[in-house]
Each structure stands twice: as C-alpha cells, then as structure tokens.
Amino acid sequence: MVTASGITAATQFVGLSKELVIGLKFRNRRRLARYLAEQLGRRLDPTQIDVITWAPTSSRRARRRGYDQAELLARALAAQWRKPCRRMLFRRHGAAQTGQTRHDRLDRAHGPSFASRPLRNPPRVLVIDDVVTTGATLLAARDALLAAGARSVVLAAVAATPETHLQARDQARFRARPAKRSTAAMAGSLSSSTTTPNMPTRSAASTFDATSSKKAVRAASALSLVSANS
Fold this sequence. Notes:
Number of strands: 6
Helix content: 40-55%
Number of helices: 9
Strand order of the largest sheet: 1-6-5-2
Oligomer: single chain
Structural class: alpha/beta
CATH topology: Rossmann fold
C-alpha cells in the first residue's frame, strides 16, 4: 500500500502486524526485524535502490531501548538485498512523534528535523521507518537527503496507521482537553457562571482488516516468532 503522503507500507498498523511492530519496538524482540524487513521488501524494487538508511529515533530513546528499531529493519533488509546500509541522517531537534496529534506532527516547527552530510556520486536512497502515521518524520528525512545531494529518495515503513484510526484518536484527545474559559469570564464579568471543562470520553473501538496480502499466509510464522521472543 502507498499512503496519502506517498510512503510505501507493507501493511496497516492493526492486528497481528501491530503486535509484531510493538514487539520489536518496545519488547526487545529484535529477531522480528528480519521477518518484518522481508515483508516490506516485497513491496519495493531493489533495482531502484543504491543504498539503504533509516530515520533515526532520538538518542534518548535509543539508549533506553538499547537499539534503534528502524536501524535494525534497515540493516535486515540490506542484508537480504545485499545492498549497503549506512547512517546518513542525524536527528536535529523536535519532540517525539509518539502521542502527538495530526496537527502537531505536520507542524514543521515542532516536528522532527534531520541533517545529512554532503553525498558524493548522488545515490538513490531508501529510507526506512517502523510505523508511518502522517509521514512527517520520513518527509523530513527525504528533505534532508535531497538537500545533501541524493539523486532520489524512496520512503518506506513496515506499517501505516489507518486514517480512520488516526482521526478517532485525535478526536478523543481533543475532547479530553479542558475547555478554555470565555473572554468574559476571564475578564471578570458580572455573570457567576463558569465554563466546565470537557471530560474525557471513551472512543468506540473499531476493527480494521489488515491490508497486507501476505498476512494470511505468514500469520503462523509470525506468531511463532512472537512466541520464540517472549
């Protein structure tokens, strides 16, 4: 599948695919990187790629986990394709994307920013990440590589957050925020009424079908990897 921002993803971030990515990202199940990279590789053309890199997470997160999951995916796919894998991007600033709303993610002033050293013999670069939501991280990575002299940049992620899922989550967070007091109340109007903050409401859960055409065939293998790394 290809997202609205032009990023190739192997599947949606739901069901089994979500469990596998979470296992790699938060539960130290590093062996899953090889399987997930294989699924992503089925969606891409290796003949159009010269070098593979990744969108690095923050140094704080990498230290805490002991690894960068995007790097593991990039190196696993490079090994399968027998392509070079190099660190070409360096994170400059910006808050972590996890937990942010769509508006915050797309705001370039608050989003991630990357730098890349000048590139010789302009390569065709593939940038890999684990999950794409709005695409802000990978788009920022592409901008940095093109500015450094890359010939072309392909963006890819193992899984993409469904559009409807993202909208529902943002709506729930918006409803959970306290309502702002009116101007009259803040100015000390004669009215004794006040604005009551909106209370969090429970969002209805939605069921999404996985989009990967390989999921049904590979489910048993994936589950065995989860068990082996539990």
